[in-house]
Amino acid sequence: MMTLEEIRRIKRICGYTNARLSELSGIPLGTLNKILSGDSKKPRKENIEALENVFRDIILYDEIKRDEPLVSEDPAPIYGAKSAAESHQKKPGEFTIEDYYALPDDQRVELIDGVFYDMASPTVEHQLLAGSIHAQFLAFIRANRGSCIPIVSPVDVKLDADNKTMVQPDVVVLCDKSKITKRCIVGGPDFVLEVVSPSSVSKDYIKKAAKYEAAGVREYWIVDPLNKRVITYDLAGESMPGIYPLAGKIGVLIFDNKLQIDFDEYKDMMVQVDDNEIE
After folding, report:
1. Residue 70: inside a domain
2. Which domain range does residue 36 map to?
3. Residues 268 and 130 in one domain
4. pLDDT above 70 coverage of the chain, percent
5. Nearest-angstrom CA–CA distance, 70 and 90
6. b/e for 113-148, b at 16 or more Cβ within 10 A?
7. Domain count of the fold of the chain
8. 248, part of any domain
9. Peptide bond preceding 154: is omega within 30 degrees of 0, i.e. cis?
10. Is the pLDDT of residue 80 over 50?
């Protein structure tokens, strides 16, 4: 079951007012106000379930259970610790970017709020999607002599000032070049895109969405090959998220929809990949 904090975050990202959420969930507005404000100390289980159902299509709640932190609550030796003694002293939530940089080069993880999350090797489909989208951003910016910079993963993005979050989005577009350092991007990019994998559902739909919004990211896209859809979030505005099929063209808000990302290019590439499938 979702926590109230998760419900509040998704509500904010989706742009729902309390009145709209009341209408969609069937919960009386007065009751909903008490639940979301925290005045209701023990919300009824059926009310929480009703709120979950409103967001189910967007956050794929049934699949979120698969996404677990790399570390457990047991303070055993963990990647990134400088010594065995330090590894026993630190628990999830206490790790920093210093620990992140101490990891072996072949260990792919993200650090979110002091917790390490494993990153599975990307599939061919994942890379084709990210590569196609990055190439379209690059071509558009060059053709229009734009100053923004599109970057494809892997690239480190340090979102927070508290030194406990370092993520690797699949594609970012950065218009403020002062945020670029030799080692990483410091602060929120203007545009972020994540290609969802079965192991990253919770991170991409909940944890990262909230972190990107808090860091000032203007636009966030989730590309979901499993469910054949794209969800776009206008984090700088108040519009509802857009939900599109993984096909055709979708406009990029930070470029006033003048750039239309064509997902049919990706589909054409996948035809050959599917033909080469090895059983």
Report:
1. no
2. 4-59
3. yes
4. 82
5. 14
6. ebbbbbbeebeebbebbbbbbbebbeebbeeeeeeb
7. 2
8. yes
9. yes
10. no
